[in-house]
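Forwarding these from the shared drive since the link keeps breaking.
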Amino acid sequence: MTRLNVNTARCVALFASELQRSDAPAPGALAGVISQTVRRFGIAGCASRMAQEFGDHPEAAASRMRWIRTLITQTPVPAATRPAEPGGWPPIPGFGPRATQPAAGRGHRAA
């Protein structure tokens, strides 16, 4: 599976949201819409909904994606998704390799 970058993930989530052009969203409101949509469907669910729309209504879906990409390029990335350090992006919840954690009570001790 291909890893999404932050802007692509934001576009996919907005595409799957109920946001409409007539809503004329303020830039600050987009982060809330994206978060709510990802919590509701997960990033894979958002991508699935987007793929279905491109299959069912390709012209309308292409127009919606152009509008969404314009919104995203005009809206700065929220501080929570900016790189934590130069060259590195924080993980997108629900997407990418899962972090492994040691089982409870089985931590290693330093010798």
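-- next protein --
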Amino acid sequence: MSIAEIAPPAEQRWRMSAVSWEGYLHLGQAFAGRHIRMAYDRGELELMTVSLGHDRDKSFLARLVEVVTEEMGIDILSGGSTTLNREDLERGLEGDECWWIQHEAQVRDLREIDLNKDPPPDLALEVAISRSLLNRVGIYEALRVPELWRWNGNVLSIYLLGEDGKYALSGTSLSFPFLPVAELGRFITMQRTMSETSVIRAFREWVRQHAAEWQRLRTAPR
């Protein structure tokens, strides 16, 4: 087993090669409950520790999604950083956040997800502040997650899965086509000068100001 290491400020990533599927699962059990994220791609394994800044941004973005769905009356199931994997594809990862939205009713009563028979999350979030040692986007593509949001610390980008099985950059969210997602980045950066509670309050007010218009867009025939 060979190991490559990179140590950016506040976050550390390690890459292990020639790791079996069984070894990946065993390490997942060993690190359960610890502040370590894992990604696996056909024998290559990445271990990552997350920084406060990383977790702050992902948790705050999750709160924004919760506000939108509450105010708009959209049913969701929050998956957090649950492990998503498929042995037949030899791929898996723990993302930052994920949600079942269009398929919420299908997974509402489940306590475990089996991607061999259950739908993948409709939306996943990746906070990509430091460089990954694996192609995490490729893992999401293989797992057929329809929509991926990536936040790089300054810009929130939307990627939608095409018929070719590859992500393409999009200006519109599939899960929230009415929502100007680029505006979310503005509220994230407001945390630098305001308390989180104050920003959430301002965001909720912004959503309420636009809710009637967004509902019309949401229910308009396509």
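DSSP finds six helices and twelve strands in the chain. Helices lie at 21-30, 52-72, 104-107, 136-142, 182-189, 196-219.

- D.
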